[in-house]
Amino acid sequence: MAETDRAKEAFGIEIAELARGRAVLTMPVTDRMVNGFGITHGGLVFTLADTAFAYACNEDATVTVASGADITFAKATHAGQTLTATAERRWRSGRNGLYDVTIVDETGETVAEFRGRSFSTNRTAPAAPEGAGGPA
C-alpha cells in the first residue's frame, strides 16, 4: 500500500511506525494547508487520521476499506507545525474492525480524535507496479 499511496505523497505524510493494527504517521502543516482563518484545514487533519487508519487496518493481503469514520477537533494548529497520528486497533472480528486515531501536535497536545470503522473486502491487494513508489 505504501508504494502506491499517492495521497500520502501529495500531503507530505511520512510513516514513522507500522505494526499489525497500529500505525504512526506524521504530516508537516504547510502554508497551503491552512484555511481562511489561518488554521489547519479540518479536512487535512481528517486526511492524516484517515491515512493512519488505513495503514493500521490493512494488516494482511486483504483489501480493507473504511465503512465509516468520525472526528472530533480539540485544538487548532497552524503552518509550521507537525502533526502526528497514532492509529490503533480496538477490535477486529470477521470482516469488521474498529480503530481509534489520536492526532497530536509537536508538543504532544491532542489536536483531534478520530474513530474509524473498517470492512475487509474479499479482494486481495494488487501488486505494486514495477518501479512504483519508492521509500515509504
The separation of the N and C termini measures 9 Å
Tell me the strand order in the biggest sheet: 1-2-4-5-6-3
Q: Bin the strand percentage.
A: 35-45%
Number of domains: 1
Task: Report the major sheet.
Answer: 6 strands, antiparallel
Helix content: 10-25%
Uncertain ranges: 132-136
Alpha carbon gyration radius: 15 Å
Q: Mean pLDDT, nearest integer?
A: 92
Report the total helices.
Answer: 2
Which structural class best describes the helix and strand composition? alpha+beta
* CATH-level-4 superfamily name: Hotdog Thioesterase
Detailed description of the structure:
With 136 residues, the protein is α+β, with helices and mostly antiparallel strands. It has one domain (6-122): Thiol Ester Dehydrase, Chain A (Roll). It has helices at residues 6-10, 42-57, and strands spanning 14-19, 22-28, 62-73, 82-93, 96-104, 110-124. It has a 6-stranded antiparallel sheet, with helices on one face. A hairpin with a 2-residue loop joins strand 1 and strand 2. The longest helix is centred in the middle third of the chain and has 16 residues, at 42-57. It is globular. The N and C termini lie close together (9 Å).
Characteristic terms for this protein:
disordered C terminus, six-stranded antiparallel β-sheet, 6 strands, Hydroxyphenylacetyl-CoA thioesterase PaaI, alpha+beta, Thiol Ester Dehydrase, Chain A, 136 residues
Helix-strand layout with pairing:
Layout: H1 6-10, E1 14-19, E2 22-28, H2 42-57, E3 62-73, E4 82-93, E5 96-104, E6 110-124
Antiparallel strand pairs: 1-2, 2-4, 3-6, 4-5, 5-6
Q: Gist?
A:
The protein is an alpha+beta fold and 136 residues long. The protein is built from two helices and six strands. It has a six-stranded antiparallel sheet, with helices on one face.
